[in-house]
Amino acid sequence: MSGHQLKTIAITGASSGLGKALSEHFLKLGHTVIGISRNIREDLFTSPNWKSITCDLTKEPDLKALCQKLKNIEYIDALILNAGFGIFSFLEQQSWLQISQQFQSNVLGHIFIVKSLISKLKTQKEARIIFTGSEASLEGQKLGSIYCASK
Question: φ, ψ for residue 97 (rounded to 5)?
Answer without folding.
Answer: -65, -45
